[in-house]
Amino acid sequence: MSAAPAGAVVGATTARQVVFVGPMGVGKTTAVTALSDIPVVGTDVRQSTLTFAEPSQEGKTTTTVGIDYGEWTDPEGNRIALLGTPGQVRFSSARESVTAGRARVVLWIFGQRPDAAFQIGRWLELLGDASVWSRTVIALTRLEGADPERAIALARRTLDPRFQHVPVLVADPREAADVARVTLASLSLTPGSAA
């Protein structure tokens, strides 16, 4: 067996992982692309059928079918893997493969929708249990001029009591600074099994 060439990187190059989850079209791939220091390995494909597809955002012609991958160097110099997941329920096995273990999670939710709290609860239940919720941050997006503090207060007020400890922030997946803020918030969490 020959040795790796000088300067070659063998094995994992990242210290930690942050997984972006949420409904189709919310901006997970956009968030990975906005923050990544390297070219993103994307898994978007053109939507070819509406028969089995969940409702898409107006004008969205592609959907993620695997795991999007990027990397980011945080302010302390640590390399962080950024993973974007499919928003369609039928691709749940791809999500489960990367949310298991110790990865931190950012749940992106359409904040302007009247059922935002319901969607938060639905997605948190899809993700698992308190061991996952304790390493999750909720990012409300697409507020379209709404007051961010009011949106957070409304979401928090209507959340199921099981999820009251999960941090709720406002962020735009197109803005690297916003994505960095919610990513760092997820990395700062101390996982446990808090209910």
How many domains would you count in the coordinates?
1
* Main beta sheet strand tally, sense and closure: 6 strands, mixed
- CA-based gyration radius: 17 Å
- Tertiary shape: globular
Beta strand %: 15-25%
User: What is the number of helices?
Assistant: 6
Instruction: State the helical fraction.
Output: 25-40%
- What is the CATH homology-level superfamily? P-loop containing nucleotide triphosphate hydrolases
Low-confidence stretches: 50-56
Number of strands: 8
Q: Structural class from helices and strands?
A: alpha/beta
Order of helical and strand elements: EHEEEEHEHHEHEH
Order of strands in the sheet with most strands: 4-5-1-6-7-8
Structural account:
This protein has helices spanning 28-35, 92-99, 116-127, 130-133, 148-158, 176-187, and strands at residues 16-21, 44-46, 62-64, 68-73, 79-84, 104-110, 136-141, 168-170. The chain is an alpha/beta fold and 195 residues long. The chain has a single domain, classed as Rossmann fold. Strands 4-5-1-6-7-8 form a 6-stranded mixed β-sheet, with helices on both faces. Strand 7 (136-141), helix 5 (148-158) and strand 8 form a beta-alpha-beta unit. The termini are far apart. Residues 50-56 have low confidence and may be disordered.
Structural descriptors:
single chain; 195 residues; alpha/beta; Rossmann fold; six-stranded mixed β-sheet; 6 helices; 28% helix
